[in-house]
Amino acid sequence: MRHGHFTIRGTPKSTRTETKNQANDDTSSITDDVRGAEYYHGLVPRTDVEPLLKKDGDFLLRKTEHTPGVIVLAISVRVGTAVRHFMINQDPSGTFYLEGHHEKSISELINWHRTTKTPLSATSNAVLKRPVERTAWLLNHDSITLVKKLGEELWEVFLAEYAMGKDKQEVAVKTMRTEVTREARLKFMKEARLMRKYSHKHVVKILGVAVHEHPLMLVMEVCPGGSLLSYLRKNKGKMDGAIKIR
């Protein structure tokens, strides 16, 4: 692994989305170290995380695209009235650092900065005070089991099971391919943000998104009749006026 920023990959396995990477992936220990942490939010854009950081010292850890195709881990922290973002580096020996101090793992690096109150950089005055927990709509991949592929357009759509403790719910899942562009990922997250705002019997409800690993997933309630566009195409010329305006 080269000196500097490191790449993180998530690998789906069969129709079951794995929460851990393959054993021969040298980044697996990195994601395993932090994926269960309260402050780890996964692959979410700045537009989603910045409103969560309300007070000076509020922080979280997230994935971000540093350059096209290169995903890195970054700490986002509020410093006064601004939010700053600091990418985590790794040296040739495998230790992690932000500017000067090195630790064997990312969680240890974050804990060191929290307990010593050492700024993340000499000029930023960014001190980690309070971790911001993931919101309820950020789901874990290991709670989602893909069952049957329903369709494929820009996203792949699956019938799936979502586990909530001992209970399971049948859901529909849109998955984003790993090779999509940054712009497509932002569009994916924008759709999720918009859908979360609506609660109506005629609007499909979003249960959450899974963004810790690839592929990204948008989890929704199942619509038995399929999409509106598919229904209109299938029933073209067969619907009376009452159905059209309902």
List the helices and strands and how they pair.
Elements: H1 28-34, E1 40-43, H2 46-49, E2 58-67, E3 70-79, E4 82-87, E5 89-90, E6 96-97, E7 102-103, H3 106-116, E8 130-131, E9 144-152, E10 156-164, E11 167-176, H4 182-196, E12 206-210, E13 216-221, H5 228-234, H6 241-245
Parallel strand pairs: 1-2, 2-8
Antiparallel strand pairs: 2-3, 3-4, 5-6, 6-7, 9-10, 10-11, 11-13, 12-13
Q: What labels describe this entry?
A:
246 residues; SHC Adaptor Protein; 5-stranded mixed β-sheet; disordered N terminus; Phosphorylase Kinase, domain 1
Short précis:
The chain has 246 residues and is of the alpha+beta class.
Structure overview:
By secondary structure, the chain is α+β, with helices and mostly antiparallel strands. It has 2 domains: 28-131, 2-Layer Sandwich (SHC Adaptor Protein); 141-234, Phosphorylase Kinase, domain 1, CATH 3.30.200.20. It contains 6 helices and 13 strands. The protein has helices at residues 28-34, 46-49, 106-116, 182-196, 228-234, 241-245; strands at residues 40-43, 58-67, 70-79, 82-87, 89-90, 96-97, 102-103, 130-131, 144-152, 156-164, 167-176, 206-210, 216-221. Strands 1, 2, 3, 4 and 8 form a 5-stranded mixed sheet that branches. The protein has a 5-stranded antiparallel sheet with strand order 9-10-11-13-12. Strand 2 and strand 3 form a beta hairpin. The longest helix is centred in the last third of the chain and has 15 residues, at 182-196. It is elongated and about 70 Å long. It starts with 27 loop residues before the first helix and ends with a helix.
